[in-house]
Amino acid sequence: MTTYSKLVDVTVCTGCRACMVACKNWNDLPVETQAYSGGYQSHEKPTGKTWNVLQMKEHETANGGFEWLYRHSACYHCADAACEKVCPEGAITYGEFGSVDIDQEACVGCSYCVYNCPFDIVELADYVTEDGDVRQRAQKCTLCEDRLQEGLQPSCVDTCPLDAIVFGEREEMLKLAEERLEKAKQFFPNAQIYNPPGVGGTKMFYVLADKPSVYGLPENPEVPTSAVLWKDIAQPAGKALLGVTMMGVLTGYVTNKLFNKGEHHEEGGEVDESKHG
């Protein structure tokens, strides 16, 4: 199966926020007013109501200069997603284009995915169920899977004026990232590709001008050990134990029925002696 990825080249991003606006418009996301925190940052991070945030960071250069660092931030769609591992309802799955999807009707708002996301992306937000009830459900970037199914690009990619965000087949995006990295290193000696292996690689990866921590990114994010234990050990063991338990219950039920039937026959009335030799 062909997998796809989104490449974000921060070295050519100008911080125009067109990606934010496009995401809000296409996904019909509500206005989310946040307290002013100073500077030009509109939202601190992605939330359940704002799936795509252009993060702006003031950075002092090695020679004492000053520069702005811009970074498109959204769900990374990890190949080995912690949120998928910890979901007790099976509401989080991998989509046909490589996205990590959340079934809003299956989600119960337990917040396990929120607490275990190594990038602090997933959050709960109001969701109107099929019955018309408003519930708290985990929500985040969907990689515009509905657009991809129609042969369109994700809305943030489609609107980026400088091709700082590009989308395509994963191998092509990895190759393009290497090409852009070579160009970036001419101006940014510490430039590097951010595609952390600890989460199996991400379906949204970066060409960064400096090390990840400069951009507020974890250097080596990993799937939490608790998530691995839960998904790969505890759940299979629990299902196996449940199977054994159910077999025991079923065996007991059948045995009980058989014995009770015999007792009922003996106690239920006289035995017809004519049927016995």
TrEMBL record:
<keyword id="KW-0004">4Fe-4S</keyword>
<feature type="binding site">
    <location>
        <position position="78"/>
    </location>
    <ligand>
        <name>[4Fe-4S] cluster 3</name>
    </ligand>
</feature>
<feature type="binding site">
    <location>
        <position position="87"/>
    </location>
    <ligand>
        <name>[4Fe-4S] cluster 4</name>
    </ligand>
</feature>
<dbReference type="Pfam" id="PF13247">
    <property type="entry name" value="Fer4_11"/>
</dbReference>
<feature type="binding site">
    <location>
        <position position="13"/>
    </location>
    <ligand>
        <name>[4Fe-4S] cluster 1</name>
    </ligand>
</feature>
<feature type="binding site">
    <location>
        <position position="83"/>
    </location>
    <ligand>
        <name>[4Fe-4S] cluster 3</name>
    </ligand>
</feature>
<feature type="binding site">
    <location>
        <position position="141"/>
    </location>
    <ligand>
        <name>[4Fe-4S] cluster 2</name>
    </ligand>
</feature>
<feature type="binding site">
    <location>
        <position position="160"/>
    </location>
    <ligand>
        <name>[4Fe-4S] cluster 1</name>
    </ligand>
</feature>
<keyword id="KW-0479">Metal-binding</keyword>
<feature type="binding site">
    <location>
        <position position="110"/>
    </location>
    <ligand>
        <name>[4Fe-4S] cluster 4</name>
    </ligand>
</feature>
<dbReference type="InterPro" id="IPR017900">
    <property type="entry name" value="4Fe4S_Fe_S_CS"/>
</dbReference>
<dbReference type="GO" id="GO:0045333">
    <property type="term" value="P:cellular respiration"/>
</dbReference>
<feature type="binding site">
    <location>
        <position position="19"/>
    </location>
    <ligand>
        <name>[4Fe-4S] cluster 1</name>
    </ligand>
</feature>
<protein>
    <submittedName>
        <fullName>Formate dehydrogenase iron-sulfur subunit</fullName>
    </submittedName>
</protein>
<feature type="binding site">
    <location>
        <position position="156"/>
    </location>
    <ligand>
        <name>[4Fe-4S] cluster 2</name>
    </ligand>
</feature>
<keyword id="KW-0677">Repeat</keyword>
<feature type="domain" description="4Fe-4S ferredoxin-type">
    <location>
        <begin position="98"/>
        <end position="127"/>
    </location>
</feature>
<feature type="binding site">
    <location>
        <position position="23"/>
    </location>
    <ligand>
        <name>[4Fe-4S] cluster 2</name>
    </ligand>
</feature>
<keyword id="KW-0411">Iron-sulfur</keyword>
<dbReference type="InterPro" id="IPR014603">
    <property type="entry name" value="Formate_DH_Fe-S_su"/>
</dbReference>
<feature type="binding site">
    <location>
        <position position="117"/>
    </location>
    <ligand>
        <name>[4Fe-4S] cluster 3</name>
    </ligand>
</feature>
<dbReference type="InterPro" id="IPR017896">
    <property type="entry name" value="4Fe4S_Fe-S-bd"/>
</dbReference>
<feature type="binding site">
    <location>
        <position position="16"/>
    </location>
    <ligand>
        <name>[4Fe-4S] cluster 1</name>
    </ligand>
</feature>
<feature type="binding site">
    <location>
        <position position="113"/>
    </location>
    <ligand>
        <name>[4Fe-4S] cluster 4</name>
    </ligand>
</feature>
<feature type="binding site">
    <location>
        <position position="75"/>
    </location>
    <ligand>
        <name>[4Fe-4S] cluster 3</name>
    </ligand>
</feature>
<dbReference type="GO" id="GO:0046872">
    <property type="term" value="F:metal ion binding"/>
</dbReference>
<feature type="domain" description="4Fe-4S ferredoxin-type">
    <location>
        <begin position="4"/>
        <end position="34"/>
    </location>
</feature>
<dbReference type="GO" id="GO:0015944">
    <property type="term" value="P:formate oxidation"/>
</dbReference>
<dbReference type="GO" id="GO:0030313">
    <property type="term" value="C:cell envelope"/>
</dbReference>
<feature type="binding site">
    <location>
        <position position="144"/>
    </location>
    <ligand>
        <name>[4Fe-4S] cluster 2</name>
    </ligand>
</feature>
<feature type="binding site">
    <location>
        <position position="107"/>
    </location>
    <ligand>
        <name>[4Fe-4S] cluster 4</name>
    </ligand>
</feature>
<keyword id="KW-0408">Iron</keyword>
<dbReference type="GO" id="GO:0051539">
    <property type="term" value="F:4 iron, 4 sulfur cluster binding"/>
</dbReference>
<feature type="domain" description="4Fe-4S ferredoxin-type">
    <location>
        <begin position="66"/>
        <end position="97"/>
    </location>
</feature>
<dbReference type="InterPro" id="IPR051555">
    <property type="entry name" value="FDH_Electron_Transfer_Unit"/>
</dbReference>
